[in-house]
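Appendix B. One record, verbatim.
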Amino acid sequence: MVPSPLALLLALGAAATALAEPLRFVDCGSVDGSIQEVNVSPCPTQPCLLHKGTSYSINVTFASKIESQGSKAKVYGEMLHVDVPFPIPEPDGCKSGIQCPIQKGHSYSYLNKLPVKSEYPSIKLIVKWELVDDQDQMLFCWKIPVQITS
C-alpha cells in the first residue's frame, strides 16, 4: 500500500517537530485564531540562519476562533518596515496539514516549506507569515528574525 501525500506530510511534520525547538515569535495580528507554537526546522538559535539553496520546515500549531471554508498563506520578508512578498510552493492552507473546513474551537497543525533561493541576497530581515481565512481575516500572523547566508 502506498502512503498518501497527506500521511507523508504529517509524518515529515512530526519528525521535523521532534527536532525543532519552539521559537520565540512576535504575534503580528492573529485575530481569528491563536498561535500555540511556531517551529522552524532546522533553526537551533535565533535569528534563524537560512542558508541559500535550502528549504526549511514550518510547523505552526494554532486554535481557530471561527469557521472558515479555506485558508491561504502569505509570506513576506520585512525590510526597513516594507513587506516584500516571499513566494512559497503551496499557499493553500487546506493542502498544508489543515483539514478544511476549519472549525471554531479546534486546534490545527499548519505544515509548510520555506525555500531559500540561491539568488536571494545575504541579508538580515524579518520573516512575516500570515494565514488568512475565507474572509481575508488573520487566522495567524507571526514574525521571526532571520539572516540569509551562503
